[in-house]
Amino acid sequence: MSGAEVRRLRDGDGQEFMARLKKTVVMVGMMGAGKTAVGTALARALAVPFLDSDEEIERAANRTIAEIFARDGEPFFREKESQVLSRLLKGTPCVLSTGGGAFMSEANRRMIREQGVSVWLKADLEVLWQRVRHKATRPLLRTPNPRETLRALLEARDPVYAQADLVVESGEGTVEQMAVRVREALATRPDVLETDG
């Protein structure tokens, strides 16, 4: 294993290993699945940058996601989301968390498949609801019955998320344990993560 991107790391048991991330890891899944928390822990474990596409969109627009939705609508937001994804996928390999709807676009899925690897953090409705029900920052859940809205979104999106390159169950265990499970899934793809053990 050679190259400047090779890093000496420690796994959850303190064992040292070498790793080199060759492609950007794109975390996909529903709001509340843990994409940001697990993605941050994974990036820390692999010693690579962590980026959040929603934060990058907010920075570029100088407005919050909720403000973009309210002022310009969802189609405008989705267009900006695709532009930001394209830019980030062309950068240095990193761990990238995406908004729940980003993977719904066929163009985005193709872009991610060609330039990175998608990891679906799969979670059931109860887990998701427990994680998002007290958050006011979810524009799609500003409805009279947010739990039913979440259920309908999950039902519509799961078949598309199932097209992801890798699937990791989200729910059981700590954020760090989930990050280890994602790293183990990535290790099955030597085109994405090269390790010595």
From TrEMBL:
GO molecular function terms listed in the Swiss-Prot or TrEMBL record: ATP binding; magnesium ion binding; shikimate kinase activity
The record describes how the cofactor is bound as: Binds 1 Mg(2+) ion per subunit.
> Its GO biological process terms?
amino acid biosynthetic process; aromatic amino acid family biosynthetic process; chorismate biosynthetic process
One GO CC term, this protein: cytosol
Q: Where does Mg(2+) bind?
A: T36
InterPro entries the UniProt entry points to: P-loop_NTPase, Shikimate/glucono_kinase, Shikimate_kinase/TSH1, Shikimate_kinase_CS
What are the subcellular locations of this protein?
Cytoplasm
What EC number(s) would the UniProt record show? 2.7.1.71
| Broad EC category | transferase
Give TM segment ranges: none
Q: Where does ATP bind?
A: G32, A33, G34, K35, T36, A37, R138
Name where it mostly resides.
cytoplasm
What pathway does the annotation place this protein in?
Metabolic intermediate biosynthesis; chorismate biosynthesis; chorismate from D-erythrose 4-phosphate and phosphoenolpyruvate: step 5/7
Where does this protein hold substrate?
D54, R78, G100, R157
Query: What cofactors are annotated for this protein?
Result: Mg(2+)
What chemistry does it catalyse, as a reaction equation? Answer: shikimate + ATP = 3-phosphoshikimate + ADP + H(+)
Write out the similarity annotation. Belongs to the shikimate kinase family.
In UniProt terms, what function does this protein have?
A: Catalyzes the specific phosphorylation of the 3-hydroxyl group of shikimic acid using ATP as a cosubstrate.
Record's subunit section: Monomer.
What name is this protein filed under? Shikimate kinase
